[in-house]
Amino acid sequence: SQTIHQWPATLVQPVGSPLSLECTVEGTSNPNLYWYRQAAGRGLQLLFYSVGIGQISSEVPQNLSASRPQDRQFILSSKKLLLSDSGFYLCAWGTSGGLGEQYFGPGTRLTVT
Amino acid sequence: QKEVEQDPGPLSVPEGAIVSLNCTYSNSAFQYFMWYRQYSRKGPELLMYTYSSGNKEDGRFTAQVDKSSKYISLFIRDSQPSDSATYLCAMSRGSNYKLTFGKGTLLTVNP
Questions:
Q1: For the range A81-87, what are the long-range contacts, defined as Cβ-Cβ under 8 Å and sequence gap of 24 or more?
Q2: pLDDT per residue as tens, chain B (111 positions)
Q3: What is the pLDDT of residues A37-86, one digit of tens each?
Q4: Which of A16, A111, B31, B106 sits at 20 to 30 Å (Cα–Cα) from B4?
């Protein structure tokens, strides 16, 4: 069966510090990978998605970037965090031949102080 | 007009009640429909998905899609306190397209 991992689970970082969140998927090959941010009362916002190694599409221009160095690894980064980067970050995976359904990880709660 | 509209609630019901959660959408290109359950401070969990009009049942849960009205529903029978969560609808045009989510409905089932 497939499993998706995210770490860390929680993170408190000062403004201006760098960020690296990691997501890995087990039990599947060549998944589509996604990063979302969920802010209170604002729903799920798609940040980046990837259909293969090194292929990243950005949905919202912002202070963040994503990379996919390996087939089942997806990394979300920032060089300098802003207060507005606080939120609940979710990684998800999906299959390229399915209905478009996605499976989410446990999330990382980021607080920028 | 937003692509997907979902009443945020909150919705509070007594244990054992039948719960109806709904979403409307405007894009007729959506073909696949999903419901996710999200407990507080956890990632969303895929509950049900369907790609055709009509009903799909799974235990106490029934997903209903009416493409002619652009309306989808999730029914929960014999609701339990453990069903207390936020329920998000989601839809897509297919596997190579992004999911579009509703903002979620917060449900509380009181014992």
A1: A81/A13, A81/A14, A81/A15, A81/A16, A81/A17, A81/A18, A81/A19, A81/A112, A82/A15, A82/A112, A83/A15, A83/A112, A84/A112, A85/A19, A85/A110, A85/A112, A86/A39, A86/A110, A86/A111, A86/A112, A87/A37, A87/A38, A87/A39
A2: 789 999 888 999 999 999 999 999 999 999 999 999 999 999 999 999 988 888 999 999 999 999 999 999 999 999 999 999 999 999 998 767 789 999 999 999 999
A3: 998 777 899 999 999 999 999 988 678 999 999 999 999 999 999 999 99
A4: A111
Residues of chain B with C-beta less than 8 angstroms from the C-beta of A99 = 32, 34, 49, 51, 92, 94-95
Nearest to A99 among B32, B98, B103 (CB): B32
Please judge whether A99 and B41 are an interchain contact, meaning their C-beta atoms are less than 8 angstroms apart: no
Q: Does B34 touch chain A (CB under 8 A)?
A: yes
